[in-house]
Amino acid sequence: MSQQLPDPRRVAVASLGGTITMTSDRSDGRGVVPSLSAADLLSSVPGIAHVEVESTTLATVPGASLELTDLLGVLRWARDAVDAGADGVVVVQGTDTIEESAYLLDLYWDRSAPLVVTGAMRAAQAPGADGPANLSASVVTAASAGARDRGVLVVLADQVHAAARVRKTRSSGPDVFRSPSFGPLGYVDEGGVTFGGPPSRPAPLTGDLPTGPLLVPLLETFLGDDGRLLRVVDDAGCDGVVLAGFGVGHLSRGLADVVEEVATRRPVVVATRTGAGTTYTSTYGFPGSESDLIGRGAVLAGWLDPRKARILLGCLLGAGSDRSTVADEFRRRGARGAGA
Questions:
Q1: Domain residue ranges in the chain
Q2: Does position 337 have pLDDT exceeding 70, yes or no?
Q3: Which of 66, 73, 160, 168 is the most exposed place for a label (fewest CB within 10 A)?
Q4: Catalytic option among 19, 118, 272, 279
């Protein structure tokens, strides 16, 4: 499903830093640090026909050092760029946190124009640096009519992923971003982008933006987990907690007992730690099963992986959402078609 829009198209590009911007002054190329601006990055990309590109550097930091304030700044910049006439926007950042930052932006992106997030796995001076190709593919995607109304997209290695589904599945290498359960939304080929289906995305959140960082820990359960770590987190006064559970959303009986207690004070969300698939709601009935946990007050994350679930819970709590709203939003955004 490819579409064409009249020329010329306007795309705004902003850089936050990341590996794509990193260089080294050492002869062996090691010890790279963020240094290149958005304009520097675009100078390395061959001319993209029929697209006018403008650049802005918002930050020059590694992805691991991005904070909520940085992402809210990106959201403001992207909205302003589209309102000023850009047909799409591209955000460049470090790949360490793309799967989280892209989803946070997606929760609030309320424009039809595409917002594309990209980066690189190899530094700018490395042999086979993938930054220029990823940036070129992202600009092509942001300028595409077919990308409209799809929310925030992640584009790397000529694949287009939904922000709600994409994961970084390997620590290194040029082709590590995957959407394990449903696959990519589309592909970039021969200077254009083709999508496999129509847009399918929940409406963006309409509540207030988070005003500051919340303490929403992510805990992964393990063999023999008796709930003591969850008690420590609860005693620390967290705002909510996400548990990465076994299989389709299972916990040990001992941990389930603690979940029941903690859920009376703050939201407890259970996702699957497997890396793909969904949590169930009613297949199993033993203590610590998905249906038992629902009865104890836990919220199941559905198709949202633990990291996405943590972002959603933090945003909802940051806007003052009550327990009923939290449960409703997880049902809606954790559904199979949401963002797929």
A1: 9-195, 218-333
A2: no
A3: 73
A4: 19
